[in-house]
Amino acid sequence: MASAFSMVRSIFAAMACALTCDTAESYTGHLSIRVLAEREHPSVAEPGRGGWSLDREDGRRQGQGHGGRRGGLRLRELRGLAYDAEDVVSDREYEAVRRRAEALDAVGRAGSDGGHRLKRVRREVIDDYFSDIDMVPAKHDLAPAVRDLAARARKIRVRLDEIIKEHEDLCMTDNDEEQQIDLATQRSQRYTSSIVHEPSIHGREVDKNNIIKMLLSEVRPMSVLAIVGMGGLGKTTLAQLVFNDQRKQKCGALELNDLQEALIEQIERKKLLIVLDDVWNEYRAPWDSLCAPMMTTEFCRIIVTTRSKTVASLVQTMPSYSLNCLTSAASWSLFEQITFEGQDPAAYANFIQIGEEIVKKCKGLPLAIKTLESMLRYETDEERWNYVLESDLWDLDPQQNDIVPALELSYRHMPVYLKKCFMALSLFPKDYHFSQDKLIFLWKSLGLLHTDDVWDKDRTGKLYLSDLLKRSIIQCNEHAYTMHDLIHELACCVAGEEFLRLENDIPAQISKDVRNISIFLPWTCVTSKLEHFHGSSALRAVILSSMEGLGGPIEISDELFVYSKQLRTIVLDGVSLARPSLHDSVGNLKHLHHLVLRDIGGLKLPISICQLFNLQTLDVTTSGNFKPACIPNGIGRLINLHTLPVITVKRGAWHCNMRDLKDLQNLSGKLCLKGLDNVTIVDEAEEANLCSKQHIRALNFIFPDGDWQYCKHGQEPAPTTASHEEILENLQPHSNLTELSIEVCRSCRYPSWLGDTSFSKVTVIRLEYCQFECMPPLGQLLALQYLTIAEMSRIKSIGPEFCRLNPKTTGFKSLVTLEFDSMPRWLQWSGVGDGSFTCLRTLSIQHASELRSLPCALSLSLAQLKLRDCKNLVRIPHLPLLFKLDLRQCDSLTELPAFPMLQRLDIGQCSSMARLPDLPLLKVLILQDCPNLTTVVHLPSLTSIHVKGGFRNELLYHFTNCHPSLENILIVSDSIERLSVEPQNLPSLVSLKLSCPNLQFCDGLAGLTYLKELKVYGCPKLSVPNLHPSQL
């Protein structure tokens, strides 16, 4: 604790020095406590590298024994002082940015009055800016704002010295504490052996056999298998089962702390199975020291159980074994065996329903099931059962609760910086699915991503997320992330009062220790009143969201902005406002860094928003049919903005315009410029100065806004002097751009910079509803991977210029996906030479009714091809690696070339298609309305066929009876009256679905003995035979 005091003291000393400096040394406007503290204590700057931390675990350690309560109070007060110091720094940064914004404003206004006046004003405002904010000694006194900041810093320093003096007077040391061990610490010291009661283990037989098979299949003298999973999943139990299996040879337990020489004497030329349980070490050297003696054995197999995938990757010599939760059946079997052991089933019949709900609550975690079953064993009081059901697992009797110490180990082994990120997860509800972007923004908005490079925070967030995944704290479910309920309860437990989540009920007051609050609201028919929610003077973040869909509507009182002046973050995501506007008092939140108001239709931001000089994120994105937000003129003063996903340019002096982007040099990530039709003169586009904004990665240019009539500040669009061609030409982005989208541009020519080789980092381009008469040379972009071209009504021909301007080079070297859509005049595609499109995997062409053929040298690597509404297309080139082919409304195609690798074919409404070629690997065939199809060769690998529409009877018979590998048949047709199947020719068929309103007979149906699914719907004339239950 003493070291923490000294570190904090050095920080406040540096802060006070920065704010009251009267020496000749000058400090820049961006200098902060962090930089100053780094000079005296480098470890302070990076909490993840040995720096001080005031987290819950430190408080608990200080809280053990005599004087613990006093130590906990001191740490709480130190935390409060740290927040106060942060406020001082934030105020100082606000003043610095405000003065700089005013200086840039003055310079901009003077620019129109001539060069001499511009030079004079620039010199005056810059001198004034540096004399007040950077504290270069001047003849006049310090500005009042600076004097106030210095006084506040001295007050904090005085209070810190008082705390330090009290601490030193008490002479508290670690030896002054009572020597006692709390229950959690004692029970977290795990000791395991090979002894296990196998009859009490359920649902792990398959896992045990899989692991034994993996161990026995290894041919190397020494091999290591890691069993990975979250705490309480049963990794140790599984290792014990494997250790005791008779198929393995083993020796007695080894004392792994012996010297290597002694260990070699014990194991040399022996056959060993060693189990290392609950391993946390992530360093290579100790592991190598352990493995060295093992190389002297004749045969050595090592099983390592761990929660960390990093540990697994360090030790494993074969793929790790990820252990999953128990199935519902296995979970109930485990619970029932112990809870109701030796009891008459009639005696516990009343508890079965409650017990099933309790088991569901455990979500397949064996440790949780065992803990609850031990609490309820021989329990006959129904109230006690309901109490266990309704209580959080974390709040149950600690004397019987093994869950807390088992899972808390995961938290204790986290680095300091990751612990705080883990606490922030408590702001999400249970069973909440969150995206990577949402989680990283949460951490970013709470100031938990530790990096000096503000543009590197997303990468840091991804590393933190990856770390939590490797530690089995977060689970990845398809495209979203979630947590087990017990892990979520652990996050809530360690977060304490600093993080608070509310659902539905909102109290009138919250604790002064709450710094970050999330409120999840349901959708209601009436307005949810938040007028009594005023926050608190200590509140840093308010997040309003909904569990599913849209929550609200709500009214936010302006008193929230009055009482919670220290707010850094306000987020409304998935919550509607009763009145789509914010009160002017939001402009008083000078500490505000992040303002997110997503999907609030017709949102009107007050002009006072332009006073938030510390603002880094302004996100008013709308989707679907939501009307775009109305942003006032003047946001160009917010020079600290890093994230501004969308701006809608509108007419009138009140609205923001392109000039507002001029001084926003810190913009990063994605930027959508909507309403470019409203740019009145070319100078506006030029002054946006996009080419200097090196941190913007994705740009979307949309010319119409279409919503001017919904804005009370707007006025009807009028003709402008700037053409789309001139506007787009002057919006050239920086060469660091990676994604570009252009929509509804009425220029006949593309801008000269589009396709320029200097844009070597562009990976994604979308051109939609543009009136370009020829294609830009996009093939020259070496990194381009995804290209979409849609609604280009003036394009008639695509030639070699699309791939390259230099005939000696090849084009599209990295392109993976190419999509064309709605190209009504496109006649010809030529000029694709050998060596172009070498990486192309997916090609989609839709609604190109005049296109006659595809280039022969298109791509040998093409795997997926989609052609829809290409009525005049007469030929498809040979594509040796084609895996999937989708054809719709290609009326001129009569046949297909042989595709030796094709596995899925979907053909519909191809009226001239007469023949299918030999397709030896085809597995899935979907046919719809191909009336002239008469010839189909043998398809030896076919497993599924879907037939829709009218077909010849002999063709249908061929499909259903000549492919013994068929497993699934679906027939939907109005014309079929009789269907014949020969069971002896369909030995693999497991699913048959029929929807044929005129079908009267289905011969052979009763003989399909392997059928598992028979679904007949919309067949009123068909009599289905009675099938034996074993057949379905």
TrEMBL record:
Stretch list, region Disordered: 42-71
GO molecular function terms noted in the UniProt entry: ADP binding
Signal peptide: 1-26
Alphabetized Pfam families for the sequence: LRR_R13L1-DRL21 (PF25019), NB-ARC (PF00931), WHD_DRP (PF23559)
SUPFAM superfamilies per record: L domain-like, P-loop containing nucleoside triphosphate hydrolases, RNI-like
Keywords: Plant defense, Repeat, Signal
Domain NB-ARC: 206-248, 257-343
KW Repeat (keyword) present: yes
GO biological process, one term: defense response to other organism
Domain R13L1/DRL21-like LRR repeat region residue range list: 659-792
Record-annotated Disease resistance protein winged helix domain positions: 427-491
Protein known as: NB-ARC domain-containing protein
